Amino acid sequence: MKPKLTLHGKGDFHINNVDKLSYTYFPLCNTLSMKSSISPALSGSATIDHNSQLLPPTSIVDLDNSLFKRNVFFKVNDSFIWSITGQTPKQILTPDKTDLYGDFLVHTIKRTNDLFTCTIESFVPNNDTYQELHKVTMKNTTDNPLTLKSVVGVPIYGRSADTLRDHRHVTSLLNRVKVVNHGIINHPTFSFDERGHIINDKHYGVFAKSSHHASVKHYYPTLERFTGEGHTLLDPEVVRSDCHSPYKVGDVVNGYEAIAGLEYEGVTLKKNESLTLVLSLGVGESEDTLLAMEKALSVESFEQEKEATLKYWKEALSPLEFNFPNQPFNGWLKWVTLQPTLRRLYGNSFMPYHDYGRGGRGWRDLWQDLLALILMEPSSVRALLMNNFKGVRIDGSNATIIGEKPGEFIADRNNIPRIWMDHGSWPLLTTKLYLDQSGDTEILFEKLSYFQDQFTHYTKQTNPSLINKDNTLKTFEGKEYEGTLLEHLFIQNLVPFYNVGKHNNIRLEDADWNDGLDMAPGNGESVAFTSFYGQNLITLADLIRELGQSGMESVQFFKEIEPLLNSVNHHDVALKNAVLNSYFNEVKNGVSGELKSYSTDTLETILREKGQALLEQVRDNEWLEHNGEGWFNGYYDDDSVALDNVEKNHMTLTGQVFSIMSDAATDQQVEKVINCADKYLYDKAVGGYRLNTDFNEVKTNMGRLFGFAYGHKENGAMFSHMALMYANALYKRGFVEAGYKVLNTIYTQSMQLDTAKMYPGIPEYFDPSGRGMYPYLTGSASWYILTMVTEVFGVKGDLGLPVFEPKLLKHQFEDSTTLTIKTVVGSKLVEVNYENPLKLSFKDYEIETVLVNDEPIDFIRTQYGVKLTQKLTQSSITIRFKKRNESGKQL
Fold first, then answer.
1. Do 286 and 278 contact (CB within 8 A), yes or no?
2. Distances from the Cα of 401 to the Cαs of 297, 359, 364, 408, 411, in angstroms?
3. CA distance linking residue 726 with residue 743, whole number of Å
4. Which CATH architecture best describes the domain 793-883?
5. What's the whole-number average pLDDT of the chain?
6. Domains of the chain: which residue ranges?
7. Facing residues of 218 across strands?
8. Please, which residues have CB within 8 angstroms of residue 856's CB and are 6 or more apart in sequence?
9. Considering only Cβ atoms within 10 Å of each terminal Cβ, which end of the chain, N or C, has fewer?
10. What is the pTM of this model?
11. Range of weakest confidence among 515-529, 668-682, 710-724, 870-884
C-alpha cells in the first residue's frame, strides 16, 4: 500500500506506510542549540556543534543505508531478532506496518505486526539540557504470552564530523568509555579536529530505564564486543546469543568505538500487557551533568517533558495563524512558519541533506530569517538587527558567517574571503519591514561598530597591519569608530552603485544570490541585483524624506563618505569605478572619525537620482525582445556576453524577479515576462517555475551550476526561494492571479506525497522527478510567510501605522464569506477578519468599513486598500468588502 498523508489544521499529521518512503527525516531541537534529525528508521544526527557529535554524522545517503541508528533490539519468543529501526533480516523480509505521527516537535513511529505493536516517541526537551528523549512501548496484541529479551544498542560517536573518514580509527583511541548505572558515558581525552588537538570538555552519554527491570543485566560499552566477531548491527551477537559481559558499573574501557549496549533480563508479556523503555541521549560539560539526566529519567518525567515541549512549540507558533476553509493548507502553513526558526537554530548544517558547512549562519540567511521573526516576535528583533549590522565593513562588504556569540563574525566559512554582491541589499529590506511594523525610526541613529579584518577594497587587497586585531574599525588615532545604523545602510547601498562593469550594471563579483554563478569574477555583471539596489536607493530616499517631514533637517555621516554622495555622470563606468577606488584607498587604514552634516533634502535628491539611474539602466538597456516575446537579461558572463537570450530561448527567472519587484519593469513588460515565464519556465510536474531554461552548455565563464545536471539545484530546478520572490513581486505589482499560481503550485506539489516524498513544509527545490529536496532549512519559508501576511492578506505597516491591502481571490473563500489571520500588527497580537459577503475577487472589491472591536475607525485609502490614522490598541479587527465602483477605482 502506498504511503498516504493526513494533515490537520493545527499542523499534526499522519503518514501510513512511511517506511515505503526514502530520504525522509524530521527535526528534533531546542533553543539551547541541541540539533537532531530522525528518520522513520530512527537514523539521523544529534549534535550541539560541528565538533561535538553525539551520534555519527548522517548525510542523506547514510540515512537509510547506515546501520548506526538509535537502536533497541528484542529477541522475540527466543526465535528471532526484532528492532525498533525495522532493520533486521526478518523485518527486511517481512516488514512491519509502519505509521508516522508528527507534531511540534514530537516524532512518533508505530510499528505493527501479527504479534505486537511498538510505539517509539522521540523529542528534544526545550529546557537547559543537550538531550534527546525516547520512549519505546512494546504491547502484546495476541492471546498468547510473548517473551522478550531487550537490548539497547545506541552508538556513541563523541567527536567532530571531520573524523568520519579522516582519522576515524585514530580518534577512537581517544575514547574513555565508562559504565555507569543505567548507561554508558564516553569522555574522549582530546577534541581532535581542525582546531588542533585540545583537551576535550564534552561528555556523551546514553541511559535507559525499563518499566520491568530495576537494573541492567549486562553492559557492552564497545561496538566490537556488542556486534561480535563476524556480525554487524543487523544481527548483533549479544542479541542472538546469551553472552556474558565482563564489564560492571564503574569500569572504564579505553581506545575503542563506543556504544551504549544495555541488556535486560527476559520478560513475558501477557495479552495487552506492555513493556516500556525510556532512553536519554545527552551531551554535557561534565559527568555530573549527564548523571543528573540519568537520575531524572523516568516514564513520568518523559510524559511531563513531552507535554511541555508540545506546549512550547505550539505557543511559539501561535502569533501567526491562518484560517482558510482548506484545513490542510492551514496546517501546512504552520510547518512553513516553523521553518525560519529551524534555520536560525541549525543554520545550513546538521541535517542529512545539509551535509556541508561547520555550523554558523550565512549573512544572507540571517536577514531572510528575520523577515518571518519580525512578523511573529518583533520585540526581539531590535537587538538582533543592531548586532547584525556590526558585521558590515566600511568598504560595503561584510563578514559572511555569524558566530554563536553576539557580535562574533567570521570572514568566511572556509577562511576564503569572497564577495557575494547581493549581500549589501538584504539588510535594508529587513530593516524597512521592521520600521514599517514598529515605527521605531530611532533605531536608525543607534551607534554601531564596523567589522574590520585584514581585507580591504572589497576583499581584493589586504592590509597586513590589521592582521590579528580585534576586528573592529578604528580611527586613525586608534579609537573604535561607531557610525549610525543609517550610515551602515548608506555604505552598503552606495558602494555597489559605483562598482559597475562594462555594461554599467553592478559587478557580479564572486556570485550573487545564486551561489552557483561563481565563475565570472572578472567581467560578470548581475542585472538582477542592479534592480534590487536601485530599489533600495529609492527606499532610502523615501525614508530620508519621511525623516525630513518629521522635522529632521540634517543627518551626520563620517567625513570620508562624501565622494559616494556626489553627483556623477551615471553612464560613465570608468568615472564611477575611479570614485569607488578612491574611496577604498581613503578608508583602507580606518577613518578620521570626523563627521559631516548633510541636509535631508539634499540626501533625498541624491539617493533618488542614483536609484532611478539604476532602474533606468535595466529598463532601457537590458530588455530583450523578439517576435513579440520579451524578458530581461539577468546577467553577463565573464566574457561580457548576456546570459539571457530571447532568440535562443535562454531565460533566467532571477532576471525577471527583481526587475518586477523594483518597478524597473513597466506593466507591459511584466505582462510579457509572465507569458514567457509560463511558456519557458513553468513546469507543474516539478512545482512551478524553474530557475532557468536549459542552456545545454557547461559554462565555465559563468558558474559551477552549469556543471550540475539540468533540473537539479541551481541549474533549472524549481528553486522555491526565487519562485516565491517572483510571487511576492507579482503580488506587489497587482498581478495577483499570476502570483497566486506560484504559491498554490508550490503548496500542491509539496503535498503530493507520492511524488514530493516529503513531510509538510517547503523544500529548497524539487528535483526532476518532483521529489522535495533539502527540506526545513530554506529561506523560501520566510518569503512564503511574508507574502501570505503582507500581500495575500495585506497586513503590513507604514512606519508604524497599520495598513490593510488584501489581495484575496474569490476561490480562496471557497464555502466561506470570511477569511481570518491572526498576526502581530505593530506590537499588538490581533485577529483580522475579512468579510466578503458577495464573494468578490481582488480588483472587484474595495474596503467599505474597518471595525476595531466592533467600532468604526478612520482610515486613508491607498492604492490597494487602506491605512489607519492611528496605531491599534485593540485585538479584534473586522474589515468588510463591498463591490468596487464602476470606474474600477477606490472611492
1. no
2. 38, 9, 9, 9, 7
3. 10
4. Sandwich (2.60)
5. 94
6. 29-313, 793-883
7. 263
8. 849, 850
9. N
10. 0.96
11. 870-884
